[in-house]
């Protein structure tokens, strides 16, 4: 997994890149999260070299990787996916064929847009409840038994001390860095601008993460809870 468009493009399509050195009928699989257009370009170049290519970003986080329960969101030739399915199944629990080249990235960008926004609003709700005197453990239990529950509330609570084994209980170390969440949210905004889709809530959440990343870019993105605390009166 590589961190951004430029690096992925260079690794695959550079003069000394993977596509140039791959043998005929080899399969290249990219699990990075980047722009769909980058993967489409790599795929077209790979086809000209008679090389197979799949974009296969993942969802499930560090816990999913350790447990072998990742979801792979795959774009590309379904026959190539079928041929390599054992490889994906060795690392993950769910393998989705999303469509043609780049479609795996579309699915990942949309998923992470939800993740980023939902963590912000969960942090706001838990902060509000705390300010109004409600125990965050009690409020978290209510949320997880009610219509407000989400992946973040159930498995990734942003309030320190509420849930064991998550970044918020380890000073927000590890997990998914805020700077990477900024990158993924920006990918969503860029694709939205390209196709004319309005993302008003996504834009607001992105600015919050951008501000947070200036101070805590390496900390887990759930540290947005601290940002919300810091801007409160």
Automatic annotation (TrEMBL):
The keyword Transmembrane helix does not apply. It catalyses: 3-hydroxy-2-methylpropanoate + NAD(+) = 2-methyl-3-oxopropanoate + NADH + H(+). InterPro entries: 6-PGluconate_DH-like_C_sf (IPR008927), 6PGD_dom2 (IPR013328), 6PGDH_NADP-bd (IPR006115), HIBADH-like_NADP-bd (IPR029154), NAD(P)-bd_dom_sf (IPR036291). Gene3D superfamilies: N-(1-d-carboxylethyl)-l-norvaline Dehydrogenase, domain 2, NAD(P)-binding Rossmann-like Domain. Residues 102-224 form the 3-hydroxyisobutyrate dehydrogenase-like NAD-binding domain. Pathway: Amino-acid degradation; L-valine degradation. SUPFAM superfamilies: 6-phosphogluconate dehydrogenase C-terminal domain-like (SSF48179), NAD(P)-binding Rossmann-fold domains (SSF51735). It is an enzyme of class 1 (oxidoreductase). One of its GO terms (molecular function) is NAD binding. Residues 1-99 form the 6-phosphogluconate dehydrogenase NADP-binding domain. Its EC number is 1.1.1.31. GO terms for biological process: L-valine catabolic process. Keywords: Branched-chain amino acid catabolism, NAD, Oxidoreductase. Belongs to the HIBADH-related family. 3-hydroxyisobutyrate dehydrogenase subfamily. This is 3-hydroxyisobutyrate dehydrogenase. The lineage of its organism: Eukaryota, Fungi, Fungi incertae sedis, Cryptomycota, Cryptomycota incertae sedis.
